[in-house]
Design a protein that fits this description.
- The structure is a homodimer.
- Chain A is an alpha/beta fold.
- The first copy, chain A, has helices at residues 38-54, 91-96, 108-119, 184-197, 202-206, 216-224, 228-251, 268-281, 301-308, and strands spanning 2-8, 12-19, 24-31, 61-68, 71-72, 78-80, 103-107, 127-133, 137-143, 146-147, 256-260, 291-294.
- Chain A starts with a strand and ends with a helix.
- Chains A and B meet through β9 and α7 of A and β9 and α7 of B.
Chain lengths: 312, 312
């Protein structure tokens, strides 16, 4: 069985034909040019799908899955996709004008989580939550092998769980959201704070003396080298991440937590620190500690997970 | 179809025969006498089941569901039930010695949530979370009409999500757990704090001048009468409850939140306050606000929900 996966981003449309093991057999891509009319963007998506299908002559395709940076309802209408300016656009219906195949639509973070659950870090798990540690914090929930979007489409918005009541103001309008404490942005904010208090920090040296040039990688690299201010910033990040994982465990209790996004490139340095802190915050300490792993699929998770939306 | 529901508590065993609409057709009960051997307690549970069956001659029974104050695995072994001192007790197997019927075991909080979802406040909802506001804070999650226990049995332990990092120490060993901020215990603690600062509070009058006699009901009654210190205690409770509901919405996004437990007897006074505060903390404000309702089934939820474990 071959499934088509479409990773629809604000910049690129990436399409792949994916087999059941999550291997991408053929790919095509186009620019999104997001300011264009909805129907034109879908036409180019369909064009990429056609090219991918043509690259695999004689093969049958079971369905088309689309990962969008937004929210869709069960009928396949995109309710809200700010990056593309789409509100209530009938994406599945429009796609059906080109292909007589089932069309499945999911949120991009949920789709990445689905890919990791089917063929990546959480392969073999019945339930998993992926936490994407990037500029913000995204999340995707997979339960019984299916993405869980929630009743209103807010499911998996882990970055906007409140972690610190009356805490740091968030772009969403609330205060103290998870993504204000364990995103790349948070790592940079706390790293810069440390540099103001400790100007001899290695972070500042790595940034050529300019605190504005401190990136998440600067903080992590300096922490790896044992710089105390950088380690405090990193440990703050890890502490809040461990609390967030505890909150997911005490509510959903997934089989595995998968860490993705830019900060996850810190690799074992991050993973070991998180794993070491988790047991302290788990209730029912006699029960197994939830497994935590790094995401494995990288950018291809978008295509693979979109395809997996159609896996039955 | 008739199902048997057993509400196994530390004090009482309550058994009922329940029809598909959640009506209890016959009941029996016995003392738990929790210090007895496991097999004796199960023998008395089976005796109650027999009496209930005998009260409905000629009827067929489809299964036996048991709600326990602890955690069981999928094979029907009770892993951990502190109140009864049960650890790794084969409850389903022991029950099968008396009845040739399927046996289903669930956590009591999840079972109550299941009852509310099938025939109570959340009837007709595909997903709901029940928050039990008592001495502690319990929780039960129902997804697609089935209880969600999580991969390790920690699912639904909403009371031990961290709400305030480094906050009030909790009985579980962590700090700042939800149940330290929105339980009856929290209402009492904050009420007493207010009374120390404002000794002319109506709460203190109602408690005969003795702060140790302030109960959750004292705080709520005084708040209803407009006493400012009591209102501050009540509003603190409602604020933290709204944050907790936001955290459940941003992760699980259930169709409905059901409020149960002693504090929920504050009724519309509580419900109106929570509903008024929720919109402020929801992300994606264009999406519908999650519904919040009061639990409807009271003590019978234990029997009804246990029976519903067997509903297929």
């Amino acid at each position: 069985m071959i499934l088509i996966g479409i990773d629809l981003g604000g910049t690129n449309i990436a399409v792949g034909a994916v087999d059941e093991e999550g291997r991408i057999l053929a790919q095509a891509s186009a620019k999104t040019l997001a300011q264009r009319p909805f129907t034109e963007i879908v036409r180019d998506m369909a064009g990429c799908v056609r090219r991918v299908m043509d690259a695999l002559p004689g093969r049958e395709f079971a369905g088309i899955g689309i990962g969008i940076p937004g929210i869709a309802d069960e009928s396949g209408t995109v309710l809200n996709c700010t990056n593309l300016g789409w509100f209530n656009e009938p994406l599945a219906d429009e796609m059906h004008k080109y292909f007589d195949l089932p069309v499945y639509i999911g949120n991009d973070a949920n789709v990445a989580a689905l890919a990791e659950c089917h063929v990546g870090a959480a392969k073999g798990c019945r339930s998993s939550v992926m936490i994407t540690l990037g500029t913000g914090v995204g999340g995707g929930i997979v339960l019984d092998g299916r993405p869980w979007n929630g009743a209103h489409g807010r499911g998996g918005e882990i970055g906007h769980m409140t972690l610190v009541p009356d805490g740091v103001p968030c772009t969403c309008g609330n205060n103290g959201c998870v993504e204000r404490y364990c995103s790349a942005t948070a790592l940079i904010r706390i790293g810069r704070q440390e540099c103001r208090a400790f100007p001899d920090s290695l972070m500042l040296k790595k940034a050529g003396g300019d605190p504005e040039k401190i990136s998440a990688k600067t903080v992590i690299d300096a922490a790896k080298e044992g710089d105390a201010p950088a380690l405090r910033a990193f440990n703050s990040f890890v502490y809040y991440l461990a609390l967030t994982i505890n909150n997911l465990t005490a509510s959903l209790d997934p089989e595995m937590i998968v860490l993705g996004g830019g900060v996850s490139h810190a690799g074992a340095f991050l993973l070991d620190a998180v794993r070491a802190l988790l047991p302290r915050y788990q209730i029912f300490k006699a029960l197994p500690i939830p497994k935590v792993e790094l995401a494995q699929l990288g950018n291809e998770a978008g295509i693979i997970g979109a395809a997996m939306l159609g896996k039955r």
